[in-house]
Amino acid sequence: MTEVKKIAPALCGWTGEIDIPGDKSISHRSVMLAGLGSTPVHIKNFLHAADCLSTVGVMRALGTRVDFLKEDELTVTGRGFRGLSEPASILDAGNSGTTLRLMIGLLAPQPFFSVFTGDASLSRRPIGRVLRPLSAMGARIYGRSDNNNLPLSIVPTGRKLNGITYDSPVASAQVKSAVLLAGLYADAPTSVTEPFVSRDHTERMLTGFGIRVERTGRSVHIFPPEHEEEYRPPEEITVPGDISSAAYFLVGASIIAGSRLLLKNVGVNPTRTGILDILNEMGAHISQRNERTSGGERMADLSVEAADLHGVRFGADIMPRLIDEIPILAVAAISAEGDTVITGAGELRVKETDRLHAIATEFGKVSQGSVEELEDGLVIHGKRPVHGGQVDSHGDHRMAMSLAVLGAAAGGIDIEDPSSVNISYPSFFTQLERLSKASEE
Ligand code: S3P
């Protein structure tokens, strides 16, 4: 039987303070990059969620020692810059595109054989975008004959990969990071140019680990270390809160009357803050306090209170800075005055599910005619009535959480397949229910 989660309406505003769990992208990278060192790295505020645990499983299978001290705190001890070892069995990336794509980049230059698998959703997602540049570097990666897809095998080449200059057709941090990680072991520097700059956590973390990485405009250049000792992980990494997780509360508190929330220690890396720019343009009341930098990443506390939102237009240029926030921005748009037009969002069709189609279908079930699906975007008509009903998460964590906020702000909603939230935010429903309960008291 399909699992269904009932979301109650918030009867009055969301108030108080909440802690946002660690950033998913930075958590993945902290374990991967710490695993290439030879000294223990203590990672704090790690995101203990299914996707990041896929990365932990893969790194352990490659000989890296990972010890959890608490759910969100661990030490990672590698065996050195060339210390990864051949896995005894097939590596499983689960639902995680970041694990699969970044690890392919890291494994392509290694002198051993490895095979990757993943779940049904990951097996449908494009991988050619990573294989093309890696093949140009000389990597030997083979997938299923129909679509070069999972399972994939990575075969040692017997020589160093070539440094390349790659002009990527997609603005994707996963593609860029895969090429940079392969470039870390290449025979010469590697450059990647993107149509628009995507999240730059890999570049920042590598710089913090002693690797020379330079940016010129939309291009990033990595210089492989001449001596292994140049690769020096820090003793400690504190992962900032995930702005993509904060987004559900930023939007919920903006549209539920009487709300006033403080979200502490949220990452505000400029390549991730498109959600703040668009919400502010829509008329939201969000402010940043206590700004600081930790491990090369900017953090701040965000305060948000309810406001009257209005529709906006945005497109391809801002997309990489809010790529994961379109489902929750659609919730803001449905509550706003006027129309919101989103274009240049074709990448959403190849996420955990086709998110453009999923938003149009599921939002349409509880608010008929409010969302029109475009080939590369959405038109959302604001202030149409939203009624209760049963909707489907499509097995996609960001759909499940966005639909929950939509329901909490309206008359409640029932969500099929809610456990997908475990991919990035296992405590989401508990935090949401606590806010909604507090608002009833
Ligand atoms: C991620 C990059 C983005 C994003 C994903 C995490 C990363 O994907 O959607 O959730 O950690 O590099 P693309 O780079 O493929 O757009």
Walkthrough of the structure:
It is a single chain. This protein is globular. A four-stranded mixed sheet has the order 2-15-17-16. It has a four-stranded mixed sheet with strand order 4-5-3-14, with helices on one face. A four-stranded mixed sheet has the order 6-7-9-8. The protein has two domains: 4-22 and 240-440, UDP-n-acetylglucosamine1-carboxyvinyl-transferase, Chain, CATH 3.65.10.10; 24-223, UDP-n-acetylglucosamine1-carboxyvinyl-transferase, Chain, CATH 3.65.10. The protein is built from 13 helices and 23 strands. The relative contact order is 0.14. 31% of the residues lie in helices and 24% in strands. It is of the alpha/beta class. Shikimate-3-phosphate binds at residues 25, 98, 172-174, 177, 198-199, 323-324, 347.
